[in-house]
Amino acid sequence: MSIRGRWWALSSFVQWRFIFKKLRTSTKLLLLCSMFGISIVVTTAALVAEKQIAIAFAHKELVGSRYLAIVRDIYPAILSLQTDPSFQSKPELLRALAAAENDASGRLQTAALQKTLAASLRELWDGKSTASENERVVLEALSNTRRLASRIGDDSNLALDSNLDSYHVQNFVVERLPALVSQLGEMQTFLRAASSTEAVSSAQAARLALLDTSIRIRSTIDGVKSDLEAAYRGNADGSVRRNIDAAIMTMIARVESYLSTIESGSPDAEGKVDPASLEDAFSSAVGSAIRAWAIVQAELERLVQERIAELGWKLSMSLALIVLLVGLSILLAVMTHQHIVSSLGHLEGIVARVRDLKASNVSSDRKTGDEFSKLTVAFNYMLAELAAAHEREIADQSRSARQSLLVTMGQMAASIAHELNQPLAAIVANGNAGLRWLAKATPDLDEARAALKRVVSDGHRASQVIGTIRSIFKKDGQKKAPLDVNELLREVVGLVKDQLQDQQISLRTELEAKPLEVLGDRAQLQQVILNLITNAIDAMGSVAERSRVLRVRSEGKGSDDVVITVEDSGVGIDPTTSDRIFESFYTTKSHGMGIGLAICRSIIEAHGGRISASPGNPHGSIFQVVLPTCELRAA
Predict the structure, then answer these.
(1) Count of CB atoms within 10 A of residue 104's CB?
(2) What's the predicted TM-score (pTM) here?
């Protein structure tokens, strides 16, 4: 991307971010819920599409299986055998073959092979072939039938079956059994030709031809046994073994018997084998193979139908679960939206009443039992304090002073909202990040879980801010206990880690090796350090010509004091105003309220410590917090 393109993208991002900040909280929540809904819809559509592909895959296998049933009935007709009472006539077989091709049209690329096979069958069955040509025509018909069966298996996904049991079962139907019947037919055709008066061959040549075909038949039988064991292993409930094992074993036994009959006989001096003793064995072997083929094919269709039913059931259960979760999510989102918007609107209404009526004796009786309830208590306490101050000021000052107090109260309310904006903005950012991780093609659940944990952590931060503000206005509200300053600094640094990365700020921590214990309120001191670090990040926001570095140090001064230092490489502070920055409502920021550092000073002083600021060398600012140790406080 060119420099101009990058600048345009950056400008667009800043513009949209500015617009987003201006939106009402209700609009932001609505956008969040809408994005969540879109993510759910996209994910559901992908799930349904995936399941439908799998179901269509299995349905195509059924088409191929039905086509193979017609091909199976052609073999006995080629070999002039009637192995089943429902044996179709030769014209009926040709019509059935054409109908099967018509049904599979558009799904299978078998039209050319079907036409070739039909032509071979017509040539075989028209009775015009001589005895010497008949062998060639039979072998050609067997070869074309086997090729069509193989193509059906390839194009109908049977050869791509994903389940172990049905994969090996289809291998019987598509490869093994057509090969076996073809090989039996080739051998018997050869024997019939060898026994005819037209056959002229040596006894040695006859034996070699029989031996070669016998080896191929036995190899096919071995493949059948191998596939059979694999199919049994892949079928957990044992239904495949129960349904096809007897037919397969019968087929193998009769084929072995046929081969034994051939091997026990011997060609005569002219290389001919008497076919009279072989016809019964051949008919029995081929008939058992065709019956086994039909049984195995029925089992294949049963397995595919079960898979289709299972896929449909899984799809229905997934959709039901998604609908349930979406319903619960929508309900929760609506309740959250109503609660947050109504609570903020209630506080906003109180502030508006205070502003419009110029009265500070207003309070809220809203009790929700959550952070807003705590904020309401703190807000009521603040209003009560302001009301008392306002009443005292009425007796001492003029009307203009009383109006100034009301303005101050409005600024204090705005400052509380400013203090809460950071954790609320972090909650929105982490929520959006979680949605992005879930919206990926392969949802990253670990990253989404981490984002949700950060949302919970930021929620606790908001609660702690409320507690801090409440305790500031309620003098007896502090809960002080011994705490390690180093551990406190690590916790606060962990809260702003993502913000530092976004701003490309290098963090350097220099913490005392030994624990530094002070007696204090963890939430209040954490808020002080977080405020100092946030101010340092803001001060470095416009720095582009030098590195952005944030240093956080802790050190012990003997057994009396613990010193915490926060140093940045930002724009720095004016030495002439370094004392005023801790005054209420004094600020150098265009968007600041001037209340953050004043609150920090009040917290530190309430802990018996002090806070100071000075310019950095050569750039930036240095803020130092000095707190007494536990031993000194105890003394």
Answers:
(1) 21
(2) 0.45
